[in-house]
Amino acid sequence: MFRIFSGINKKVQTLFFVLFGVIFFLLAVVNAKRIDGNYYNYAILYLVAVIFFSYLILKIKNKWLFLIGLSVLAMALRSVWIFFADTQPVSDFSLLNKAANLILEGKYSEVKAIDYFNVWVYQLGFSVYCAVLYVVFGSNILVVKIFNAILSTGIVMIVYFITAKIFNEKAARISSFLYAIYLQSVIFNSLLTNQIISAFFIYLGILIIAYGKGWFWYLLSGISIAVGHIMRPEGSFALYMIAISIVAYNILNSPKKGKCSV
Amino acid sequence: MRRNIEPIDIVLMLSKIAVLVLSFNLTVQLFSYSLKAADITDYSFGNRNVYWKFVLGLNSSTNGGIFQ
């Protein structure tokens, strides 16, 4: 029975990835149309530019030159945005910031008095992280924004290395380039949001599993995903998906010698 | 080249998942414990209003607001 699975595996895989890409592309177009009907026209221009530059980056011979160039581009885009967009935290974000400052000053009883943290205890993880940053660099939300930009650039690199391992160099270059210039991944950096650091550690966990071989790497990966989960409780989803992928991989693929087995 | 899964593969597979889940859970529990030990909160790390997002949040009469 497993042999039959292995036979259809490759075709299903290709079909899955193509459908996945098309659906997400269409969603992006639909969203762009909903946000502003006028800018919708620029989407086609953007798409042509993206395809053109995706083709150009494949022409770069040196892998490390590409990586350095990409990280400089990603960091520059994000830095320009965080210094250009002076966003002040409101609502949840301001509460998280307030709690971080209270933790910094050691006023724990005031944190306990905030109902928000008594109901959603998991939000404290990010506040503790902010408090640690404030202790080191001084109480300023710009510090968190700069760390967001650095971690977001880190995600670009992680996307590259995961894809390079699982697919190939071409796919890795295009996907990391797409993530580097994806609007949402740029403009989220000016928010005091826990999503970037959480995504960074969860992807780091997946990267460790993609490259590591023994059980020790699974231990490290678990810790990394747990850190991501502490920042924003999305790590458990990643855990289910990794467990399902490990089982599916073992059933669908017979691991060949010398090749990475997840 | 292809072969069926042997029992040892299943044990190896499950042990990998077990290590992953255990180290994940231990780290989260450790953080939860240290938060309580530092007296920042009285409660365990987690969501104490599990009905919020999908049950209450989608209820149009609460208008998506908190504490109404």
In brief, what are we looking at here?
The complex is a heterodimer of chains A (262) and B (68). Chain A is mainly α and 262 residues long.
Largest interface: A-B, 42 and 38 residues
Shape of chain B: flat
Q: What kind of sheet is the major sheet of chain B?
A: none
Class based on secondary structure composition and strand pairing of chain A: mainly alpha
User: What is the arithmetic mean of pLDDT of chain A?
Assistant: 85
How much helix is in the residues of chain B? 40-55%
Largest sheet of chain A: none
Shape of chain A: globular
Q: Compute the separation of the termini of chain A in Å.
A: 21 Å
DSSP strand (E) fraction of chain B? under 5%
| Strand elements of chain B, count | 0
Helix proportion of chain A: over 70%
**Given the structure, what is the number of helices of chain A?**
13
Multimerization state:
heterodimer
Radius of gyration from the alpha-carbon trace of chain B, in angstroms: 21 Å
